[in-house]
Write a structure and sequence with these properties.
By secondary structure, the chain is α/β, with parallel strands linked by helices. The chain has helices spanning 3-19, 31-37, 48-56, 79-86, 91-100, 110-117, 131-140, 170-176, 199-214, 227-236, and strands at residues 58-60, 65-71, 124-127, 150-151, 220-225, 240-245, 264-274, 284-290.
């Protein structure tokens, strides 16, 4: 069977599961099915949206947006832990190394600053309220009155346990980054706890953030946030469907691979609702990864 047909069958299989559970999340989705369901639509299949709608009883809820997602540059807690992850360490070892190198609201290293400066110009419109994400966005695109910048709590890193996941008071952040909007960010970090946030809770929080982006007026959005959050949101939340429409020569990197420091990817983001249902929160969000369509500075 051609690759496009295989991919279509896998997406349709997953949509059948979602259609059967309209009232909520299909919590019983098995891990194996999850991996299969994330297999990409082939980019040559230009009618995937029509197939998606026909097979899922879903309708597009909002106009699609160009969403460029950027992970922050290397921060104080990253060097040893990220190197160990690349060499295949388990999560416990990864967490131990981050704890040893932990720092409150960890900032960028010199390498992290250099990574951000080299990432290219982008219009930052949404980001995590943690300093390293704000720093990265500002180095990628220096402050400008033409670019609205909002910090959103939903886009912070996996919360709890580590000090690098705990943010500064919002008044202190506003003093450091006066060109950012911290509206609806509580003064104190009320959500951080000594216990590590669960995968499901983090993935749902990230999903809520994506739903918020899709309700905004901007057609082009840069989101600067965190590797753990992105991994849990894009790969562990069954309401997010990844579709691969990149050029063939760019597909060596798996679409589900964890974001590296200062790595940037472009998506077409679309929210979908059931034909019979309303509400502001979409039932499914598709993220169609594409090859960069134009210079990021044109966002």
């Amino acid at each position: 069977m051609p690759a496009a047909q295989v991919a279509s069958a896998q997406i349709i299989m997953r949509l059948s599961t979602l259609s059967a559970t309209r009232g909520g999340t299909a919590a019983s989705l098995a891990a194996v099915e999850r991996v299969r369901s994330l297999s990409s639509f082939a980019g040559a299949d230009s009618d995937w949206k029509q197939q998606f709608q026909a097979k899922s009883s879903l309708k597009q809820a909002h106009p699609s947006k160009r969403l460029v997602i950027l992970r922050h540059g290397q921060a104080q807690h990253n060097p040893r832990a990220e190197a160990a992850r690349e060499n295949g360490c388990d999560f416990d070892e990864f967490l131990r190394l981050m704890e040893e190198d932990d720092a409150l609201d960890a900032t960028l290293t010199q390498l992290g600053e250099d990574q951000a400066r080299n990432a290219g110009e982008s219009a930052a419109r949404a980001g995590s309220p943690l300093s390293r994400a704000i720093q990265t966005a500002d180095l990628v695109l220096p402050p400008s009155p033409n670019h609205e910048r909002k910090c959103v709590e939903d886009f912070r890193e996996i919360n709890g346990k580590l000090l690098n996941a705990k943010r500064l008071p919002s008044s202190e952040l506003q003093g450091k980054f006066g060109h950012w909007c911290f509206e609806n960010i509580p003064e104190q970090d009320e959500s951080w706890t000594p216990d590590l946030e669960s995968r499901d809770a983090c993935g749902q929080r990230g999903y809520s953030g994506l739903a918020w982006i899709l309700q905004q007026h901007a057609e082009n959005v840069l989101l600067c946030c965190h590797g753990g959050l992105l991994s849990y949101t894009l790969n562990s939340n069954e309401k997010v469907v990844l579709i691969d429409s990149r050029d063939a020569h760019e597909r060596e990197r798996c679409i589900t691979k964890r974001f590296g420091n200062c790595e940037m990817r472009e998506f077409i983001a679309t929210a979908w609702q059931h034909e019979s249902g309303g509400g502001e929160v979409p039932h499914v969000i598709t993220l169609e990864e594409v090859s960069f369509s134009s210079p990021v500075g044109e966002l």
